[in-house]
Amino acid sequence: MTAAASMEDAVREILSSARGGVVPIMVVGEPVLRASAAPLIDQLEVRTLERLVEVMRATMHDAPGVGLAAPQIGIPLRIAVIEDMYEVDPEMAEARERTPLPFRVVVNPTYTAIGDARRSFFEGCLSVPGYQAVVSRPAAVRLECLDSNGREIDEVFRGWPARIVAHETDHLDGTVYIDKAVTRSLAANEAYGELWRDPSPERAAASLGFELSQE
Fold first, then answer.
1. CA–CA distance, 32 with 14 (Å, rounded to integer)
2. What is the pLDDT of residues 128-183, one digit of tens each?
3. Is residue 214 part of a domain?
4. Residue 168 bears catalytic tag
5. How many domains, in total, are found in the chain?
6. SS3 112
7. How far is it, in rounded angstroms, from Cα 174 to Cα 59?
8. Which one, of 66, 79, 178, 163, lies nearest residue 133 by Cα?
9. Which of 168, 194, 202, 215 is flagged as catalytic?
């Protein structure tokens, strides 16, 4: 059996486990989340890839989240889905530069920072349930990837969409957000919701004793 056939069978098996179009999300501790995912070339049949995208999107919405990488559902391939069309508080949206991000599929993505500016905000992860932590990320990134039809994408993202792109692409390199987070900022969701759900994390930094990287 070829590697491509083996991957096709493995993906089909995972997709067959979907209930209501949704599959379980892997949590930290699973080896698949710590390995570099393989480039998606020709391992999957067209219909299998289409079904994978459907299930990933449904699973992301069900969580709910704004992005999901294939390793998060146990598939070690460089593909992710991103989408952020949620309504948010206007003040928070302005502070975080959180603008609508229509659904898209990113295949074999890489990103590079645009300039030196960085922004620090709390973020969470579907594979690290129950917690939030502050992560410093580039204020703008250049994303180079393919879409699900193999078309080349070269696009610049700014603000919160840039954070989503970076977060999901990191997953494909075996990196989760807590690897880059400010450790002292780590907060259980209950504490975050009660104490630190501000548009920006300055008050949390002062109270919890950590520095922010804002340039």
1. 14
2. 999 999 999 999 999 999 999 999 999 999 999 999 999 999 999 999 999 999 99
3. no
4. yes
5. 1
6. strand
7. 20
8. 178
9. 168
